[in-house]
Design brief:
Elements: E1 2-8, H1 12-23, E2 28-31, H2 55-66, E3 72-75, E4 79-85, E5 88-93, E6 98-106, E7 110-113, H3 120-123, E8 128-129, H4 132-135, E9 144-147, H5 153-160, E10 167-170, H6 179-187, E11 191-193, E12 197-203, E13 206-212, E14 217-219, E15 222-225, E16 228-231, H7 236-239, E17 262-264, H8 276-298
Parallel strand pairs: 1-2, 1-6, 2-3, 6-17, 8-15, 9-10, 9-15, 10-11
Antiparallel strand pairs: 4-5, 5-6, 7-16, 12-13, 13-14
Helix pairs in contact: 1-2, 1-8
C-alpha cells in the first residue's frame, strides 16, 4: 500500500500531523500500538478547551476527528522495521504487513523508566507525577515529596514552590545537591534527605508515607518523581538521522531531520516542555514541512 506519508505514533504529535495532512488531501498511514505514555494518569491538563480531560477520551475525540478525513487510515500496529527505498520508505509492522510511503514522520514518543522503589507504580499517575505544570494544581498546598536523582532537582524544587511550600526533597541516595544549594533550601525551610528510599505506602493510589532504608519515614500526601525517558522507537541506524545525547531526534524548525524524507515531532524530538499542547503543535509543523517538500518535488516546470 502506497501513501504520501506514514506517521509512526498516534499521540498528540502524530494525530495532529495526520489531521493537517488529511485536510491537505494527502494519503496518510497512521501507525500506533495504543500504548500512550500518559495512559497511567487520570487527566491531562494545559490544553485549552481540553483541560482535565481523560487521556483515553482525548484520544477517542482525536481519532474521531482525524479519521473523518477519507485519506487517513489508522493501523493499530507497532512498527518493527523501516527501510529506505528509491522512492521513499517501506514500513513493516508486527502483524507482518508492509506499507510504503514517500515521507515519514516519527512521533512514537518516549517511555518512562521509574526508579526501582517498592510501591512506586501503585501511586504513579494518581498521587505521584512527573510534570508540575500538568498536575501541580491538583496537589496545591499539600505536603509533597520531590524524588529525583537528576542534577536539575534544585530548579525543580524552586518550580514546585509555586504549588506548595510544604516540600521535602528526596535524592534517593544520590549526591546531586551542592552545599550552597542545600543551604539555600534550608534557609527556606525545605528539608533534603539523601537516604535511599525503601518504599512508598498508602491506599487506593493515594500516597501516605515515604519509607527510607534506615527505618525512618515521612508523611506525604503526594509528590513528583523524575523518571528516565527513553525513545520508544530507534531507527537512526537504518534511516541515518542524528540524535542528541539524550536520544532526542535532531530537527529543524519544521520538523525535518538530517535524513532526507524523515521528520520528527513531539517527544521523539524531545519537544519540551513535554505537554500535549507542545506535542500537537510540533506535529502540525512537521506535517507542514512534509507538505512543503512534497509540493516542491511534484512541481514540474512547464516548458
Amino acid at each position: 500500500m502506497n501513501y504520501d506519508c506514514a506517521i509512526v505514533g498516534g499521540g498528540p504529535a502524530g494525530l495532529n500531523a495526520a489531521l493537517v495532512l488529511g485536510r491537505a488531501r494527502r494519503s496518510v498511514a497512521l501507525l500506533d500500538n495504543s500504548q500512550p505514555r500518559n495512559g497511567v494518569t487520570h487527566a491531562s491538563h494545559g490544553f485549552i478547551t481540553r483541560d482535565g480531560i481523560q487521556p483515553s477520551e482525548f484520544r477517542r475525540i482525536a481519532y474521531e476527528e482525524v479519521l473523518s478525513y477519507p485519506s487517513v487510515r489508522h493501523w493499530k500496529n507497532e512498527v518493527i522495521d523501516i527501510q529506505r527505498t528509491e522512492h521513499g520508505f517501506n514500513l513493516y509492522s508486527d502483524s507482518n504487513e508492509q506499507i510504503h510511503a514517500r515521507k515519514l514522520i516519527l512521533a512514537a514518543g518516549l517511555r518512562e523508566v521509574l526508579p526501582e522503589i517498592e510501591g512506586i507504580r501503585d501511586f504513579y499517575g494518581k498521587s505521584l507525577f512527573a510534570c508540575p505544570f500538568c498536575d501541580g494544581w491538583e496537589l496545591r498546598d499539600q505536603p509533597l515529596a520531590l524524588v529525583s536523582e537528576h542534577p536539575g532537582v534544585f530548579h525543580k524544587t524552586k518550580l514546585l514552590l509555586n504549588w506548595s511550600r510544604d516540600l521535602i526533597v528526596c535524592t534517593n541516595g544520590s549526591d546531586i545537591l551542592t552545599p550552597e544549594q542545600r543551604q539555600q533550601l534550608a534557609s527556606r525551610g525545605i528539608r533534603s534527605v539523601d537516604t535511599p528510599i525503601a518504599a512508598f505506602s498508602g491506599r487506593n493510589g493515594l500516597l501516605e508515607r515515604v519509607h527510607f532504608t534506615d527505618g525512618t519515614q515521612i508523611e506525604r500526601s503526594g509528590g513528583f518523581v523524575d523518571p528516565t525517558q527513553i525513545p520508544n522507537a530507534k531507527f537512526d541506524e537504518a534511516l541515518g538521522y542524528k540524535t542528541e545525547k539524550n536520544g532526542g531526534i535532531v530537527i529543524d524548525p519544521m520538523g525535518r531531520t538530517m535524513a532526507a524524507g524523515v521528520y520528527a515531532a513531539g517527544d521523539s524530538a524531545y519537544v519540551m516542555p513535554s505537554q500535549l499542547i507542545y506535542a500537537a503543535a510540533s506535529g502540525s509543523k512537521a506535517a507542514m514541512g512534509v507538505m512543503a517538500d512534497l509540493i516542491e518535488e511534484e512541481w514540474q516546470p512547464r516548458l
